[in-house]
């Protein structure tokens, strides 16, 4: 998430009412999670296990809960609760705005696009040309949709990330301030849910086709011309490269990469990153030929035991 203008380290420290380490005029351009940070961004860290990763990341401002040595060319914001203060920043720079119309006056809808009754189009949504948005689709604020996109009934674009911190009194949600970006010629079936990024974009690449009842987690990037079948659940921060095929009831863990032109057979649990150009099956995931050989050998166990007797 980029801020509407450049802020100083002092400005942000005043907003958060926290101490800082560095030049008061140190420039801040935005805020992001660790996997998408760039120079000029704020990243937060609240566990010693991840201090080094945050301090050595591309982020040049680290919101941290301990005074540590500040790397050269960077700045620190010292907070007793970085998670809370990251939410303070999101609320400040990307506040929730209540809707008062089914199709927001700030939405931009391209020529030839059809919006069926009872669809909801939120604030600052952009929809390209010749799209078809069926009844009861909900498109949350700031979503970007390209040309020739079809979205079927009951689908929700832009719901919050499933991202929580456990507190003594329950779970505290990390507020989502990112977007969903749907590129040209994408088809999305009925009752799909695509969560927005926490600070960045959840992206569906051009030409990708998604079946009914598919879930896509926050900050996931799906490439071009992929096929994803029904009841697949894709976790957050997953990278699916171009022309991947995922069959029904597949589930993935977060933070993995599925290589280009891979085929994931039905009911597979994608527990790790996998190379492109191969077929995979099973939980834990393996190349399908190898997995099927193992299953065939398991069937032979009774015969082997009988021979031993």
Describe the structure.
- Helix content is 15%, strand content 31%.
- It is globular, with a radius of gyration of 23 Å.
- A ten-stranded mixed sheet has the order 8-11-14-19-22-25-28-31-33-34, covered by helices on one side. An eight-stranded parallel sheet has the order 7-10-13-18-21-24-27-30, with no helix packed on it. The protein has a six-stranded mixed sheet with strand order 1-3-4-5-6-2.
- The protein folds into two domains: 2-93, Udp-n-acetylmuramoylalanyl-d-glutamate--2,6- Diaminopimelate Ligase, Chain: A, domain 1 (3-Layer(aba) Sandwich), CATH 3.40.1390; 108-292, UDP N-Acetylglucosamine Acyltransferase, domain 1, CATH 2.160.10.
- The protein has helices spanning 9-16, 51-55, 82-93, 288-299, 301-308; strands at residues 2-8, 19-21, 27-31, 41-45, 61-64, 75-78, 108-109, 114-115, 120-121, 126-127, 132-133, 138-139, 144-145, 150-151, 156-159, 164-167, 170-173, 179-182, 187-188, 193-195, 201-204, 209-210, 215-216, 221-222, 227-228, 233-234, 239-240, 245-246, 251-252, 257-258, 263-264, 269-270, 279-281, 286-287.
- The chain is an alpha/beta fold.
- Strand 33 (279-281) and strand 34 form a beta hairpin.
- The protein starts with a strand and ends with a helix.
